Amino acid sequence: MSGEQIEIQVIASIVAAACALPGVFLVLRRMAMMSDAISHAILLGIVLAFFLVGDISSPLLILGAALSGVLTVSLVELVNKTGLVREDASIGLVFPLLFSIGVILISRYAYNIHIDIDAVLLGELAFAPFDRLFIYGRDLGPASIYVMGVILLLNLAFILIFYKELKVATFDAGLAAALGFTPGLIHYGLMGLVSVTAVGAFNAVGSILVVALMIAPPAAAYLLTDRLPRMIILSVLIGVLSAVSGFWAAILLDANIAGSMASVSGLVFLVVFLLAPERGLAAIARRRRRQKREFAGRVLVIHLLNHEGTPEEARESEVGHIEETLRWKEGFAKSVVGYSVKRGMVLTENGRLRLTEKGREFAGRSVVEEFIA
Amino acid sequence: MDVPGLFSDLFFDYTLRTIALGSAILGIVSGALGSYAVLRKQSLLGDAMSHAALPGIALAFLLTGSKMPLVLIVGAAAAGWVATLFIMSIVNTTRVKYDTALGMVLSVFFGFGLVLLTIIQKRPDATQAGLDKFLFGQAAALLERDVVTMGILGASAILITMLLWKEFKLLSFDPDFASTLGFPVRILDIILTTLIVIAIVLGLQTVGVVLMSAMIVAPAASARQWTDNLGIMIILSAFFGALAGISGALLSASVPRLPTGPTIVVSVSVIVIVSMLLAPRRGILWRWWRERRQRGRLRLEGILEDLYSLALEHNDPGHAHSLSVLRLMSAGKGGVEKSLEILSERGLVRAVRPGEWALTTAGLEEAEKTMSERSGMSDER
Predict the structure, then answer these.
(1) For A151-165, A257-271, B314-328, which range has the lowest pLDDT when averaged over its residues?
(2) Pick from A61, A180, B203, B306: most CB atoms within 10 A?
(3) What is the DSSP letter of A318?
(4) What are the residue ranges spanned by the domains of chain A?
(5) What ipTM was estimated for this complex?
């Protein structure tokens, strides 16, 4: 591993962690698409700030971009408030316009200066180590590490300081307002944070992939836990994991690093989506199957109890007949019988089923539980 | 700007004609189908589908080695489809919300598309030139055969919406009712989504992945302001889309270094803003003006009522009352003098002495009428 590769991985990990922190709250507050809007609209802020300052590497550009992010949020809310269009439509109306104005300004007035729209959208992490920070002529490493490091600390500080407020405002906005937490302030604080993070990160990973790193890891974490602190930590871990393994996938395929990081974060979500212990597709399917068999077992013993001691008992306790009356498929009946035998509810005697004492008692209780209570 | 020259170019200049025609077709198709997306609260689905189209385009190229528009369109549509499927199954089976699923699928698909693009770029046998134009669109690179493809696909999409008019209408406004009537809601949903995917894919070459979502949302959101009728809305929306497409194409052709896609988006946004401000009944200015008029009317009525109740107190309709009393009674709402002047112009009040006012006979009748109307209203409640 070369020094450059290590540096890229460090930058990518910091970006991923910094994105995941505000991302958790975006996902929980159902504002994920706002990150998409903001990350596009910051282009306009960068361009305008560049026209004012005239220096492409000025830190004021970050401020301009962050302001334009907040402007986007306020514009979306303004359009919302008119009640003329739905909320999703107002997001879809605002950010393409701001982005378009940004693109037009660049191609009209800044075509000879290096603001590459491709780079804004796609980012080029591979070049990040070349932009280094020098103090008194000493090489202190890539500048992005410091920029993103500060942003990461900012996000962390915001979440730690306003943890209680964020939590209440996220899960119960009404209560937050009643307690005097001014949800509006927290909302705009969070949006400002998203903007600053998007600006810092777009340099490295591009604006569209900022969205991936903000949303995919928290979405995966959301399926893994019910507790907010755990969700935050998991999101950061998943983000960093996606960043590092995305980097290696990119090296292997000789492809765009940011795109590969986004793909891996999507892949991680897919795995969680399929395999998460309680909320994954596999777990849901397993639970449904188990419940179905359990219920069928109850139906079976109740059926046997029902006919116990009646003249039809001999016929009603034949497996083939039960299958027909209860309209079970052949394989299913066999598995239900096997399951019930294993649990000691029934016995098989030359093709007929007979309740055990335990089964009789269970059936009686089931009738009460399932059909009377 | 040489306007007549521009218009003659529009018909006789090959490049400009092709671009304008392509943009117009794009505007019509995305405007018409976008109406359904907006009405079904799927405005941002267009955003997701257009981003998701990127890996589809790249894969189609990787698999076939062809850059034929039809091949790429099929790839894009398939990817848009898979993305929609992912979004729906995530939302339906887990507690992850719609916006999260949308944003994630959008960005992850796009990222995957980028990976594929860079892989294509580095293959020795193929140049990806022509593929990256899908990112931002490149209307200038439109060829006549592209426009013909767009025209045929767009026309068939619109034809299908016309054939399934009743079904789509019901699906958009009351899907539950549609399914109780026995319509195959699921299949209809699939058809409609496919048509929207086609509309999006048509625009990718012109305005690009990033801005295509605006072409789905904006014309429809504008048209919605002017009418409550679905048919009129769709026609208006198609018209707005075409208007934005053509004017954007013309503008970018006549001004140097004005990229077509963003210019079209700015044009369509201007249409949105104008519609939201001016549309009758719903528009912001319209509402403001109506409220203002109502406020004025209520103020006049209030003064009349005050004078009337004073007259009742004094048992003399002609009794004059000073301005200060009336001011006090209107509880600091202001504009009392001006209202009195308007009322006296209408012959409802008269100044007995300077600064002292009384009802005229007509004013008395008017006051009685409004009072009884109002008490009638409160009785109904």
Answers:
(1) B314-328
(2) B203
(3) B
(4) 3-279, 282-372
(5) 0.86
